[in-house]
## 1
Amino acid sequence: MVKYNKKKTIVIGHKNPDTDSICSAVCYANLKRQITGDDYEPARAGHVNEETQFVLRYFGVKPPRRVLHVRTEVRDIDIRQVPGVNRNISLKKAWNIMQQDGLVTLPAVTEDGHLEGLITVSDIAKTYLDVLDSSILSKANTRYSNIIETLEGLLIVGDESAYFNEGKVLIAAANPEMMEYYISKNDLVILGNRYESQLCAIEMEAACIIVCEGAAVSMTIRKQAQEHGCTVITTPYDAYTAARLINQSMPIGYFMKRDHLITFQETDVIEEIKEVMTNKRHRDFPILDQEGKYKGMISRRNLLGASGKSLILVDHNERAQAVDGIENARILEIIDHHRLGPIETIGPVFFRNQPLGCTATIIYQMYQENHVTIDRVTAGLLCSAILSDTLLFRSPTCTEDDRNAAIRLAEIAGIQIEEYATAMFAAGSNLSSKTEKEIFNQDFKRFTAGKISFGVAQINSLNAQELQELEKRMLPYLKQTRKDLGLDMLFFMMTNILTESSTLLCDGQGAEQLLETAFHVDAEEEQDVYRKESGIIELAGVVSRKKQLVPAIVVALQE
């Protein structure tokens, strides 16, 4: 029976994901599965940083699958799961399968699932119109079990798993004296109930005799057949019908196309295969998985209904921060706690955005609203995300809802908040062994304000000396990266969790002056916010990119 693959919905955070982005994706996918019973898969759009690795290891959770893009792939459309067949099945059986399921093409696969070849309705039709060779049955290496099945016969003598692989097929219509002149060794002879004809064929060393019209086979004929190694089959059909049907017993492997097959991978992008499908006049094309195993069939018509991947976005709502190919996807929901960004959707979506310190707090609320029990692992992931995003409640983005949620989740997870958070931040603060690129991409986001595009990367650390040593390493990297990313301005925020302050590196025309305006920097006055040196601004009390840094930059740009 032909089936179609069932689609799943991907739950995914932003590029360069942080702990909130990944933990929220995992926990929300779990919630949606429990509520709906449908298939929701958590995913990530970038590398898992060390802080998040610590969290996942602590609670025994595997990192979500990394998704490089969400452009529409072959696996996103309706793949017709046409069952593969063995190359030794008969043409008749193949025809019946195709007629029953409305198929034009049938794939032959090996026992381990690899594609061997394809046979079409037209291939089978040609065997009736073009095959005039009386030796074709043996050339096709036809198994006796196929002959028995096709003729609805009964094996009297012989081995049904053996093959008819020599000789020709003929009908014994003449008397026994004449038969001696045209029967050769290893032939297959179709005959009636005449004892003399059956005996003659056996004595002429025929490989097989087919006795028609359900005639009985005497014990003498059976014994002679066994002694001569001759297979005996009876069929209810008359000789004319048996002769017409017998070619249908040939295996499809002899006629199927096996060379230069046009196949596609599950991960092939639709836009890239359309031209190939248009230029080739095939009705159906086989689909293979990443191991090269057969998965199903698609046709040009399948491409017309391609609707793209189904997505739920968590912890972001701006296209610049989203996984590549977002414009081709169907966004179903957005769960976020950031400012609203310029993202367009194909249709209406469920959008939940709350001014909280963490997306995980919103998801915690949704568990409660839907009366879904939170287990220890889910609680641990959600609590970790809140502690990370709120910097252990030190961030100005932190609300009472965040704090209360984290305390309750910590109880369920069985962790001590202060002790656990210190270990988690320490895991993420080990920066000395990382490259500048790895450090920068731990948590980087793009933003747009009017015609100005800028980016902000942020790291958090408990080690003041480590942060200070990074200044000289990261400034040169910032200059080159801004050019590579095509941004007008680029900022790198190094936040000291213990002192609740940040050192901000900047690059780009007017970037430093912009910060001085945004944070009212005056080098001649004693203040907590000051210009340390060219390209470096010290920001006391500034720890939040979302609530403190980005809004100040946007306001300054508008002025």
Note: The domain at 436-558 is CATH 3.10.310.20 (Diaminopimelate Epimerase; Chain A, domain 1).
## 2
Amino acid sequence: MTIHQVLKQYWGYDAFRSLQEEIIQSVLDGRDTLALMPTGGGKSICFQVPAMAKEGICVVISPLIALMKDQVENLKAKGIEAVAIFSGMGKREIDILLDNCIYGKIKFLYISPERLLSPLVRERIRHMKVNLFAIDEAHCISQWGYDFRPPYLHLASLRDLHSDVPILALTATATEKVATDISSKLTFRKGFKVFRKSFERANLSYVVANEENKFRRLLKVIQSVKGSGIIYVRNRRETQEVARQLALQGIAVAYYHAGLSADERTKRQDDWKSGKVPLIVATNAFGMGIDKPDVRYVVHLDLPDSLEAYYQEAGRAGRDEKKAYAVLLYNEADIEQLNKNLEQNSPSLKEIQQVYHHLGNYFQLAYGAGEGLVYDFDLADFCKRYQLEVLKTLSALKILEREEHIALSESVYLPSRLKILADTETLYKFQIAQPSYDGLIKTLLRSYGGLFDQFVAIKESELSKRTNLSTKEVREMLEKMQELELLSYAAQTDQPQLQFLRARLDRDHLAIDHQYIRERQAIYRHQVSAVIEYVQSQNCRSKQLLSYFDELNAKNCGICDFCLAQKKSARFHDDMESKISGEIQMILKNESLRLEELIPKLKFGTEAQQLKQFRVLLDAGLIKNQDDKFYS
């Protein structure tokens, strides 16, 4: 099929959006390509369409597990075969999925950059018929980006697996410096192309307000802008408190943060996406991978850590290209807090070593042990146990990740999964020998199809109801059958994953790049300064954001709070000039007056404005002079 036929058949569109076709054609021509497109600009189409138009599989690298899962489900809904591999999956489960990519009809393999560090995964990709490497959130490869992720630094080695396959890097948030860094670190080949779509969001009205009573202003926004909205706050406690206050005002609202159970998070997200609950109060854990086009407003009640993060979060409003609002409320205390966070984001070498030492103790690792081991990781519990500051600890973990001592994944919900390893005859013999397991095995086979072929998502609670066993008994029996190698069972998880990439070292042998720490501190300072300048500056908000992303010739948007205030001031000025002119002409129609007699009689405007309008009328011949007196 042609790319237009693919677009129509699978996505239902008759035409591509701006730059999409040019990016796709560049990829089809075999060129390495960098696509810089704003949030909601249709980046996924740029790799999904050419991959469908060519024979083979597209390998998509993404750091966002929620986004991977969402895109896989969307592709499957279109009848396109896609799978995702990320932290939390077992070796056997990954084996089966990779085999399907080599021998099956899979068109898209979504994979986290951490997984590409595995020699097993890389070797299996070598045997796939890859037609494109798509690297999403490509700014993560640059330490100058706002969300640098060390595993991205290894992506250039994809060339070793398939030297002729083009690489398409995509991002919605990149300055010129970051864009140059991306093409350099991915070792783009000669003749590569860069497509930059303006980051301007012409339908999005940016509003910044210095407010002591943020809640009162928030209510005004909610009451005046109808439709779906997101309110971003800094921490979990705030999500609950703000939602509670809004509910007391009779507003239908839910709150969302990573501390909720997976089922509860899914329910609240679905209720909001469907419009059942129009408003959600959330931490920045909410929104990744969610494509809801009709969000009418996004409100930030706390200052963001960077303009890149703000642009991405605010950009979730108005993706349907209809009028929407991005409102940022702050006060002087917020600026103090942001500067304090800057300090928290800058751990010393000693503090980094201390965090690493505590990690070893937390997971009870001996020196020289732990390489390759993966653990569920509860950051809050870890910090509480060792009395550590959360932000500083998170920054220390990122530096340890950059130095490749550890790898840390985001929190992700994975349902329990199960695959039967034994053949039917062996399983039947086990049922005869162990009759207490017979009911559970029969229920498994009746309830779930494909258990002999692949990992299937199961629910222990459902099995419990159907077998009259407790949920605990179901789990224990499945674990026992796993020990006997009758099946492979991966229990549900809802925790971030921490992996030790190297064996545990003592403090004296823990290598940390001092220069990198200094550079990261300089980047944080620059990002914080840019946020403070954005909220305090008297300039067009859109123009400021575009300037930050190196679009230096942007015009005033005309719809942000600054531009609207300018228009109001200009209208007021025009109205005042009209009132002064009318008053002068009316007075001089009734009597002739000297200038010094006229001015005291005028009620509108300042004396300077009055004199200016007097001269305008005189020059236009609308008032005349005779014997030092004026008349109209």
Note: The first helix runs from residue 3 to 11.
## 3
Amino acid sequence: MGIYYIDGKRFYQSLSAGIRRLLTRQDYLNKINVFPVPDGDTGTNMGFTMSAVESSFNIEDNVSISQAAEGISELTINNARGNSGAILAQFFTGFSEGVKDKYKLTPLEFSHALQIAKQYSYDALMKPKEGTILTVISDWINAIHKVSSNTTDFKKILTHGLNEALISLSETPKKLDVLSKAGVVDAGAQGFVDILEGINNFIHSGIVEERTTEAIVETPSVIESISFNEKYRFCTECLISGNDLDRSKLKSKLTEWGDSIVVAGSNSRMKIHIHTDQPKKVIHMCQTFGTVSDEKADDMIRQQHDAHGIHQEIAVLVDSGCDLPEDILRKYNIHMIPVRLNFGPEHFVDKMTITSGEFWEKLETNPHHPQTSQPTPGDFLRQYQLLSSHYKQAVSIHIPANVSGTYQSALLASEKLDSMPISVIDSRSGSIGLGLIAIRIAEAIIAGKTMNEIHTITEEAIKNTTLYVGLKTLDFVVRGGRLPASVKKIADLLRINPILSFTSKGIKPVGKTFGRKNILGKFKKYVEKTINWNQPLRIGISHANFEEKAFEFRDDFVQKVGKENVFVSEVGPGLGAHAGPGAMIIAIQILRDSLND
């Protein structure tokens, strides 16, 4: 029985089948990803882009093809990730334009709409490259165009189109040397063909695949030896909303900051993708065009290490409420997902689109007190999906649930992932305290401990880590609403300096010093009095724009516990917004666990 028209419901059902096929293939696509850079995330990005359609689009029986296409276009633009994801989003935007005001489509009308989608797909890129997803999209659409005037049956034209797409996919290595050398087809092109195969299977059988992950086909070993030689480090993306957005001008401006540029969307909403070394400057430039949201900046060097480097089978993930310097994160292979913050209408990604110096300056001069927002479950899910392609298990440890929703976001995301077991843990600490705990977990993984042993070591590390916060002033904790102004007045009157810590009821005072002179020196003496020095210790110091004092503390502690057991970092926005400049944090960790057994 033939199919002679498609309306909104049929379009959505068929695409949903294609998406499910794509989702079963994410890990494989990640494994064969070598272009434009071998960072091993094409499958994750395409899956994230398209899964929003299935999870968020509500289809009704009488929905038109125009309505369905418009809704799918909006969802893919909003959720587009990566080069291929942005191209897919632009493809659906073009298709939506091609079916505007139509209730249903004949094969010939479908072909005409695809021609517009093809043009939109090419227009999204500054430098379209053949041998990629673009080539397969083009060859598929050309094949459909040739037969759509001779048949009225969608089954026949889509089967013919799929056959041509498979041929086109097999020839991608002939058009890109990097694919030929690696012995693989283009990952984005393969993902598009996977969608077509899911659609074709559905229209012939009426059965939608279950969302189970396929066994990974062994990939050529040559991929493992591919080196990362990309000129730029960060895969940077954002969404721009506004009126009459100028795509041509925006693309021209982006060329000043990097390459692999994709601009997808309409003149009111555009998704930007660029490889750059200056994510902050790119985001700032985009803000001159309209309202910017959904910013991200992935470190492609770290991703390439995950995909092709030598590492353990268990990953460690923290949020950026964990204050560890970049060199320590790299040394212990600790992954970090950033929190977001805003000063009024200005939005930033922690440690990516705002520098520490800029943060402290804005904290003192901006009339808006900063607000932080935890990563969303979607942010965590994308990170988990990416890690699951390269690790067998993960430990995801975060700032306490009683001070942030970050832990809950991580937990919700972990429950949606079937491809890898994830242990989501409340650290009951933050800043450099969370950092010391994460280091201990990483050391246990490096030592080859089992997951049960790692859980035991983690609980011991949490129990044996105490964090103290010393404030130079109470002004910022009052501005942030964490302390009533009346309490500050009393503290100032009595010259009391509260010392804070993480407790079961949140961040609360646990001690105090007196006098306004040498506040931080008194804070250090208070902490030292709590320490039993006759045991193995590790000490973390995190400063709020007061590096000189932090290193003075470090030198003193090094004499007591050794250089290898003292870590220094800078306080991030999570605590810095409330602690204020000049604050100091000291974490004491007793090394009393079974790591060396």
Note: The radius of gyration is 27 Å.
## 4
Amino acid sequence: MDETTQPRPDGTTGPFYISATASLAEQRPRTLKAGDTFAVFGHAGDATPGPGSAEGIYHRDTRYLSRITLDIDGARPLLLSSAVSDDNAMLTCDLTNPDLRASASEQLDRGRLHIRRAKFLWHATCHERFVVRNFSLRRLSISLGIAFGADFVDLFEVRGMARSRRGTLRPPHLETGLVVLGYDGLDALCRSTRIRFDPVPDRLEPEHARYVFTLAPGAEIVVTLEITCIEGESDSAPSPGFFGAMRAARRDLRTAHQDYAAIESDNAVFNEVMRRATADLTMLVTDTDQGPYPYAGIPWFSTAFGRDAIITGLLTLWLRPALARGVLAYLAANQATAVDRAADAEPGKILHEVRHGEMARLGEVPFRRYYGAVDSTPLFVMLAGAYLDRTGDLTTIAALWPHIEAALAWIDRYGDEDDDGFVEYGRQSRQGLVNQGWKDSFDAIFHADGRLARGPIALCEVQAYVFAARMAAERIAAALGKTARAHDLAAAAQRLRQAFENTFWDEALGLYVLALDGKKNPCRVRASNAGYTLLAGLPAPERAAAIAARLLGRSFFSRWGIRTLAAGEPRYNPMSYHNGSVWPHDNALIALGFARYGLRDAAARVLSGLFAVGRHADLHRLPELFCGFPRMRNQGPTGYPLACSPQAWAAAALPGALAACLGLGFDPAERAVTFDHPVLPDFLTRLHLKNLTLGNGAIDIMLHRAGGAAVAMAVTARRGDIRATMTG
């Protein structure tokens, strides 16, 4: 993520640092997303601006509504409960009146009015419905106020960046039951927020609407709002109304959800955690011209990221292969074709990040279409190979082959400019990211004495990705009948393997070193990055077992998960972003690496830790990351203050780790789903996988304990030409 760039001379963080004056972990905001629009609300359904607040309604990296609050006779309602529906479609808040005194002789005790507030997003519009019901024994005269405002700030401003100039807010435009708030940006684009009220308020002002009503005992009043984000010319399409839009939104979610395999078990909490993970993935996916694409996370990263989407596609490949196909097609369509130093772009390089806000359009931040990631390009080729292995879809892969070749050419030419056989990164402009691996904080890559590494930097996991990319491309080339090319790729992969082993392995650490700096000096640091070499299949088996033992030792494994950095390293801090925290996706990829070497029990330990996090988490949702403090009896994990939740690759972590435990694979040639020595974690005795697809077939499979650690398999349903096999 674009957390930071280079440090300032005083050692503080750079301009893209996310400012923290309040904790998202403390606020536990309610989030909704549909397409390019997302919303962050407090538990009562309000959005209030202020330092540290990310609340509001956003569309394409701009906050279109910064304030919406509700009052009863001028007083804030009391919160009864708040919940996002299991499918993430609807936020429902139950509220009641506080003690209200209209005069010395007239008082309304709390709990006499019930307000049900429901809201959802669909087609760049937040639809909201208030139902106010009188549960008192007398007729009540009440006023309901709705305050609103739009600051049209760029998301990077919300994150803490200051701007010397901004565009111009338009005077509010009022019509009967309608307010339009507008902003003329410095990028010559008009952005506007249209708020429509039904029924027409008794009083409507530029920032406030008020209803005055009288309710008999048991009576109710209904108010609906439509808050529409409009970029450019006004959209006057007719509204389907609250319930019409709600039905359409749920229909869209159901359609998207049908592509996923289903996971059911005898553990009710595990089922809830997995349902939330699948619902989060469904919500975060945005339909593009090239297919479904998972946006990274809310609130800071609700846009297309290359690395995040590729890893999400890898972790969910068994669950929904169409998602990986959409990721590959989108990234191929946006692959760099020319050198652009400001964007860190070079021919063949795969996208890091896209932004649509005013600051990106003006070049105030470099992320309009930004390529400053060293790992996205080999990961793209890895995903292409994994997709072919999973589906046998050679037609899609054949269409992608020119992009795969372009990515491989980038690895050889631009990725390894000093021709030492290793891929390094170094930003091309001072505005770009100083660290361009997944740990992109300015202080994430350092030496054993704590000194920051100077570039160009060769990360250990990137070399492993390049090895895996060449092996994947070898399989693809062979499948396409390109025998000579396949031979060359396999040979290049083996040369890299030998050079990597000779250069990166450190016997004293019992791990691969974190990186080589610009002078080829090793960063002898114990970091989780070494675990990715297992995912790539690079180490020899005996070395893989040693790496697994290190990563599951006390200095790394908090019992919630594997830390990004081992305790005892000079920059270790369990509250840091990358130097001691725990990231679910990091753990899931390492678990898949364990499984690749047959270390299923090790993968099960990782899955058990992540499940324990989901069991404790708000809404049973795994966050982007959490602090790396050790697990304590009868206590939950320690949250990270600015973690995105939901986050796509965090949502994908549990499905990915589960597949690792099961040794789950697919053999398209034999039309078979395969299980290689599966292990069920200790919290499961029965697991039912439904709608596992391969070609035109689908199969449902039950796995259950058969005594001790043994696992038995039974096919419970089959559609089409497909079968299941198990070894061990």
Note: The longest helix spans residues 483-504.
